[in-house]
Amino acid sequence: MTIWQADFYRRPLQDESGQPLWELLICDQTRSLTFSALCPQANANAEWLALQLQQAIATTQHKPDSLQVFRPQSLTLLTTACQELGFAVVPKRKLPALQEWLRECAQAYPHLPNYNHQPYDPLEIPKLPPLPLSEQLWGERWRFANLPAGELAIAFGERPIPVLHMPEELLPLRLGLASHVAIPGVVIDGGRQSMRLARWLQSVEPVTLNYSPGAPDGLILEAGLADRWVISTFTDSEVEAAAQLYATRCRLAQGLHFLLVQPDDSGITYSGFWLLQQSASN
């Protein structure tokens, strides 16, 4: 399967008339294939993108099966451009090859004659205010939990869980974590809403579940490319202490953590399990 990664967005560059420039970057997962093109902001549309994608296909003599995109602002334009070309656009937050290329470009822009000296973060995604979870999805109760890294795959990977997200690259063994390291998590007893909540979570594609200190403290689910949801808020000092321990354990486990949804605490059936990892920017 051929997978390309792409970004199309405004750069800290301008043309001769002072108009901002947009840049299309395309690469594969190893950057053995790269393609780039610039256009004035006035031409930054799906039609221009489709022409560039056709040129990239002609140049490389390969047509991708899918195009991965991490930036919400370019998702719609690229999706429209790809519709007639016969391959899908897949939103995905972590695209290491492309994002590393963007960092390298950001270091090179200040040395170009058409650099406009404007502040620029190549990976910045504006954070949306977190939305409250629908009452129809509320479970009966939730709690923090943890499991030794050595037991994680056995406890959940070998169970018949209807909604299971356990990427191989996030398994503790692949990350080099010792078997005794505590992997923190959040467990939701969903009761009758358990499968409804699991299916909803599957649809929004969880990325991380972060402790957010404040007044009140809360648990914020990062999902999709830029969505944010309030899973719970709390003011109890004991829950706050448990949340701080959760955050500490996340850091000690290279950001690894989990979210488990189950009907009850019997341990007999599970509705959904997600193995997640915080990034440095979370």
From TrEMBL:
Q: Which domain of life is it from?
A: Bacteria
Write one Pfam family the protein is assigned to. Answer: Tab2-like_N
Q: Which GO terms describe its molecular function?
A: RNA binding
Ranges for domain RNA-binding protein Tab2-like N-terminal come to 3-104
Stretches assigned to the RNA-binding protein Tab2/Atab2 C-terminal domain: 121-277
| InterPro entries for the chain | Tab2-like, Tab2-like_C, Tab2-like_N
* Name the record gives this protein: DUF1092 domain-containing protein
The organism of origin for this protein? Neosynechococcus sphagnicola sy1
